[in-house]
Structures are given as C-alpha cells and as structure tokens.
Amino acid sequence: MSSLFQPFTPDRNEPPRRRFRPVPMRLLIPNLITLLALCAGLSAMRMALEAKFDIAVYLVLLAAILDSMDGRIARLLKGTSKFGAELDSLADFVSFGAGPALILYLWGMNNAGPIGWIAVLVFSICGALRLARFNVQIDDPNEPAWMANFFTGVPIPAGAVLLLLPIYLERSGLPNLLSPPLITTAYTVVIALLMVSKVPVFSGKKFGERVPRESVLPIFVVAIAFVALLFSYPWEVLAVGSLAYLVSLPIVALQARKMAMAEAQAAPTPPVDTNSPAA
Q1: Which among 45, 192, 202, 205 could disulfide-bond with 123, CB atoms 3.0 to 4.6 Å apart, if both were Cys?
Q2: Mean pLDDT across the stretch 89-109?
C-alpha cells in the first residue's frame, strides 16, 4: 500500500518551468478603467431595482464616459491587448445592452405588458449583435478608406444613452411624446434596429488628434460651458443632445454617401485587355 504514495522526487533532466513575465502597468490601467465602467453598469441595474432611476441614469452615463476613455488611454500607453478588447466587449454588453434596457423596463415599459419585455429583449440582443459585428469588422482589410471616420450603425454606448431619452424628457419637464408605454416600446425597437443597421455614423476616432492653435481656446470655452450646462441642467442637456444626435443621423449618412461616391470616382479604372477575343 505504501508503494502508491511514493515521495515526489523532481527529475533533474526535466527542463525548468517557464516563468511568466511581470505584466506592465500600462496594460493594467485600461483594463481597470473597463472594470470600473462595468461596476458602474452593474450598480445602475441595482439602482433601477430600487426605483432610484436618476442615480441609475447617472451611472450609465458614467459607464459611457469611462468606456470612451479606456480605448484612448490604451492606445496612448500602447497597452492594447486582445484580452482588453474581449473584456471591453463583455463590459459594454452589461453596461449598455442589459443595464439601460432593465432601467427603462422598470421605469415604465413594464406597463406595456409582454410587448414591453419583448422590446427590451430585442434591444439587448441587437446590442450583442452590434458588438459581435464590430469585433469582426475591426480588422477588415477590405474596408474602404472613407469608413475610417464612421461606424456601421449606432454604437452601443450611444444606443444606451438614446434609449433613456423618455426618462430625460420626463425629468426635464419638456413635452414627452414618448411617455405612453406602447410608444416607448416602439422607440426602443427603433433604437435597437439603428444599432444593427448599416447606417454610417460619425465615430470621431480621429477627432482631436491634431487641433489648430487658433482653435484651442474656443474648444476650452465650449467644453467648460458644456460641462457647466450639464451640471446645471442635466436632463435638458441630455434630452436636447439625444434629439440632436438622432437628427444628425440622416445628415451624416448623406455625407458618408457623398464621400463613398467621390472615392469610387477617384479610383483608377482597370485597364482593358485588347488582346482578349471579342464576345
């Protein structure tokens, strides 16, 4: 019986085990920001369950701000990684696909009955499909040059902010045509379809890389004024901003179409083979 439990003796000829290198801090910082965004999204769901919808909306906005920072900081620190990209997608689905849908459902769409629940399911599913399509197309070599400034469909953080427009209108005191549960349900489906659509949406990926010197001070003034308005009149600013974003979608799509046509006209035509036999 003692032969079954022989003492372990290391093999001297066994190659040494590989020691993993320490992970640089520049790789951890973007992932920490992503996890903070995920915590904000999960906390927003808790606030919605406690009927604290104002705090829930603020937490979704905080998650959106953090989500816009992690990728830029990762590129700035040269800390991009496949792990970070996958973590970002999972965090985005929770914070912007499931969280806002639950908030809006508990806020008033539950009064629409099963149709309201189906609408939030459609929104969450479209959010997951939007993220999956983005991950597939991110390294597409066949993407035209003009698409560098555009997303295909509304990105999921913007879709989450747009989804909560009925709450903004109610809190701001502005005319709320989206307050009836059935209209809110239809609006939710429209936002979901915009996310999975092929409508070109301005991305702002290259915005701010180079700023003219004469534009620096005006940008500072506009940014400070926007932050002051957002803190003073949060619901009004969110409502007007969401409506302006929706109005801009067809304008941006028309501009993208013009850029695509200009690129197609500028493309060189393939040479005609004169030696080929006529049909």
Answers
A1: 192
A2: 93
